[in-house]
Structure formats: C-alpha cells, structure tokens
Amino acid sequence: MSKLAGIAEDSVLERILDSADELGLGDTLHRALEGRASARDIVELYSAPAPLLGAVARRVTDLLTGRRVGYIVNMIMNYTNICVVGCTFCSFYRKPKHPEAYKLEAREAAAQVVEAWRKYRIRQVLFQGGVDPAIPIEYYEEAFRAIKSETGGEVAIHGLSVVEIEWLSKVSRMSVGEVVERLRDAGMDSVPGAGAEILSDRVRRIISPLKSSADTWIRTMETIMEKGLPISATMVYGHVETLEERAEHLLKLLELQRRKGRIMAFIAWNFEPENNELGRKIPYPAGGTELLKTVAIARIVFRGEIRWIQAGWLTAGVKLGQATLEYGANDWGGTLYGEKVLPEAGVPLPKLVRRSIERLIWEAGYEPVERDNWYRPVSPSG
C-alpha cells in the first residue's frame, strides 16, 4: 500500500473510521485522508472527540514514520530585540532606543553560535530577532559566513523569517529573490515559518497590522523555495481567529506544499498572553485539548504531504508535548539553547539537553532519533 495515496485504505484506519461513522464523521475523515478536505470539513473535525482524532492521526503517523520521534541539538540566536513591527502578541520586542533594547554585533552573534557548537556540538542555529531597519544585509552575510567558517560548515543556519526578509528587501532596495540569494550564498540553509500567525488578513490586521498580507507571506515563501531553500510552517492559534480561519490556514499551507514541495515541518503554537498587548484582551491561553486536536487535525489534513509535525511543547510544556506524540506528532524540535523570546512571555523553559529529550520521548513510548536540519537521522557521534 502506498503510504500516501492509499493511506485511507489501511485496515486499522478502516476500523477506526467505522466507529467514526456512528458519530457522523466517517465521510469527513475519509475526505481528509484522501487529501480532499475542505475548510468546512476541518471545522467539523474540531467538534470530534479528541481521542478519535488522536487514534486516526497516530495511525497515519505510524504508517509514515513508525514510532520514531526526531529531535535536534540546536540553539536560538536572538541577535536583537529591536523591532518596529510591534505585533500585539509579542512580549519580546523593544522599540529603538528603549532602555532594554539590545543588538549584538555580527561578530559577537557568530561567536556565541561557535561557542555553543564547541560546547554542545549543536547541529543547527535558529537565527532570528526583531525587525531593525538599521541592520543591513551585510550584517547577516558577515555573521553567516563566520558561523560556517568557524564550524567547518557543521552548523546549519535556519535563519530569519518572512518579515525579516521582506524588510531587508525594502531597506536594501532589492527584490526578495535577490535578498534570499545573497543570504543563501552566505550560508543560510533554510527559513523558519515565523510570521505566518494565522493566514487571514482579518486576523493580521488585528494582531500584527504592520506585517504583510497573507498572500504576500505565501508569495515570499514561494520565492524562498524557488531559490532552493526549504522552510518550516507554523500556526499561532488561540487568540482572535475563528475555526474557519484556522482551517483556511491549514489549507493554504497544504496548497503551498503542493505547488513547491519544500515545507519540511509544521509547528502549532498556542498564543501566550503574558506581558503583551493582546494578552490584556485575551488573558487565558488555549487549553491542552485544543493543542491535541490541532496537532491531530494537521496530521490528518497534511497526511504525508508535510511529513514532520512538531510536538509543540515549547509553549505548552513537556508533559503536553509528550501527549501530542499520541496525536500524530513525530518530531520534538530542539534543545533551544539561548532562547530569549518565550521567557519574556512568562514561559519558563526547562534545560533540555540531548539525554533529557531522549528520556522524555522514551517515557512517552517512542524511540528518539537525533536528526539534522533537514530531518535526516544522524548518529550521536556525527
């Protein structure tokens, strides 16, 4: 049986879907598993019992990647917290000249990455910050080239975001394609999905009015992939969006993947309300069941077209992260040495070294597998 085209024909899934028929959800799940889900179907899935969604999603993941769960030894380089975009959900950014604003020099940012490589043997750096129009493209070229040179190319650069790249295009008076080519040639290996939030212009006007439209985010990601770089895709949920807008978000990502084929992974984050403007209007984060359903629905809708779904523990906590593995997630993410953004939002981060991540995955009943930036398994020694 094909692990994509014929996934809905699996005998175990058929037995699960027989029970879904009793709830009137069998046809909806069949359409999703055949790659034909509509926004209305996805909204209906949110009303399904979480254990049913989990059973379907976990079986799909078992057919795709078995019981193996990936993780990566990495760090986050938040090179600046200066940002002029001012998203209402962000607790990290500071305006220029704010007393708490900081910006690392390119050499210092690279040196910290190299130090982490020497100390922890990281395989990836997530290189992200705010949007500071005073930072030229040469800053990133200098930092990226230094990282590659000093680590012998061993550290992959998962760098920037759509909004950072779009602003670089504006201040550099270059096309997005030209910016991406220069960053790629300097050493950038892939681009995170940050800035997607919810791909609805109504939502974006409320939570991040200075960011580009949903269509522009998609076009920028298309350009990035056309230049040969893979990406990850995200969704920040649990604020002002409707279920219909969540559904459209997932479908837009699926359509993007079908056109370009370079989305490596999907990550769902619940909105964290502490220490930000939006949180004063929405004081409570979405609950654990909402994360489990979102992860499961993403797996059911994406099937194997977006192969890797991360556990989402970063905002939800490690216990709930373990639970998402039963709901179709098959990647834990990274060790995240150096993360500064979430502590600003009141989210305490555990010190997750390789051994503790492996223990968490084993405890949940799965096999941990260390991977690289491109989701390929690697041996611990290299």
Cα-to-Cα separation, first versus last residue: 34 Å
Output the helix-strand order.
HHHHEEHEHEHHEHHEHEHEHHEHHE
Question: How many domain modules?
Answer: 2
What is the CATH homology-level superfamily of the largest domain? Aldolase class I
CATH architecture of the largest domain: Alpha-Beta Barrel
Q: How are the strands of the largest sheet arranged? A: 2-3-4-5
- Percentage of residues in DSSP E strands: 5-15%
**Annotation field: number of helices:** 16
Quaternary arrangement of the chains shown?
Answer: single chain
Q: Taking all residues together, what is the mean pLDDT?
A: 89
Q: Any idea of the CATH class of the largest domain? A: Alpha Beta
Give the biggest beta sheet: 4 strands, parallel
Structural class: alpha/beta
Rg of Cα set: 20 Å
Per the CATH scheme, the topology name of the largest domain is TIM Barrel
Low-confidence stretches: 339-347
Detailed description of the structure:
The chain has 382 residues and is of the alpha/beta class. It folds into two domains: 7-63, no CATH class; 66-370, TIM Barrel (Alpha-Beta Barrel). 45% of the residues lie in helices and 12% in strands. It has 16 helices and ten strands. The chain has helices at 11-21, 26-33, 39-46, 50-65, 106-120, 137-150, 162-172, 176-186, 201-207, 214-226, 243-260, 288-302, 313-316, 318-325, 341-344, 354-363, and strands spanning 68-72, 74-78, 124-128, 156-159, 188-190, 231-237, 263-270, 308-309, 331-334, 367-370. The strands form three sheets. It has a four-stranded parallel β-sheet. A three-stranded parallel β-sheet has the order 9-1-10, with helices on one face. α2 packs across α3, α5 runs parallel beside α6 and α10 runs parallel beside α11 (243-260). The longest helix is centred in the middle third of the chain and has 18 residues, at 243-260.
